[in-house]
Amino acid sequence: MENQEIKHTNNTKRNEVIYRITILVLVLLVLFLTILWISCRQSLIEMTTQREIAAELNVGLQSELNHVLDEYQMVKQEYDSVLVDKDSIIGASAREIQNLINRQADYNRIRRQLNLLREITQNYVREIDSLYSENQVLKAMNVQMREEIEIAQRRTSELTVDKMLLEWKVEEASTLRAYEIEVTPFRMRGRGDREDETDRARRVEQIRVCFKIGENPIVEAGDYNAYMRIVDPFGVVLQAGDGADHMIVLEGDTLQYSMKDSFNYQNQVKHTCLTWQRVDEFEQGVYAISLFTDDSLLGETILELR
Q1: Of 166, 206, 235, 271, which is most buried, counting CB atoms within 10 Å of its CB?
Q2: Beta strands in the chain (DSSP E)
Q3: In this structure, are residues 210 and 271 in contact, taking their beta carbons and an 8 Å threshold?
Q4: How confident is the model over 202-222, as pLDDT tens digits?
Q5: Closest C-alpha among 162, 208, 215, 213 to residue 185
């Protein structure tokens, strides 16, 4: 009996120790879990705070990125042709930064990338400004060159005109010219020794054209042929015959003439007359009369017969 009581007492003590140990372990476990929960909660609060701070920082980074891109776009619109090759580099860098901001990557990494992008765009802007300045200088030089070319072209045109005018003056000066051209239609009276002037077509027997050739020291002195061409009111050239004997080539044109004579010119005023003897009866109307040498036109006049 006594042994059973001792045994029971020992069991009771052992159980009490186990209970105490179990309670202690549970208390420690609860304490550990409490500490762990407090730590996790604190970490969560800190993480949330950090995310909020990171979000605020990312907003600032996003704003800076937008500002850099806006500045670049303004420059790009003005100098788009210059930035064609650079645009892909800047665009790729901007997209990479945007992805980092969206993923809320490390702030310092984003900052480094953003600073690099800003440096690239600023370098391009400086490069463009330099190109723009050079372009302005080139434009000014181009304007000046165009003005100088225009002045040279005008001067060349003026010299060409002056040359043509001088050549024309020389040609004119070296050409014989007739003046005071007088036309006298007449018929012979009596025994053929008296001239009777008349403008009646059916009475006219001869037409005499007298003219003066002015003094010209440039023209070569000597004998010259004088041709008279009379065209009737119907456009027919009056001729004493047909064929090459009544043709003259003047300045590339082959002309018929009515008659020819010759005169001697000694660089002094020369008075000359050519007389046309009618072949057929004259018609009423206006007759065109032209005078030539072998090289040039001496002069022209008209005669009207009633």
Answers
A1: 206
A2: 178-189, 194-197, 206-213, 222-231, 247-250, 253-256, 259-265, 270-277, 285-292, 297-305
A3: yes
A4: 999 999 999 998 888 888 889
A5: 208
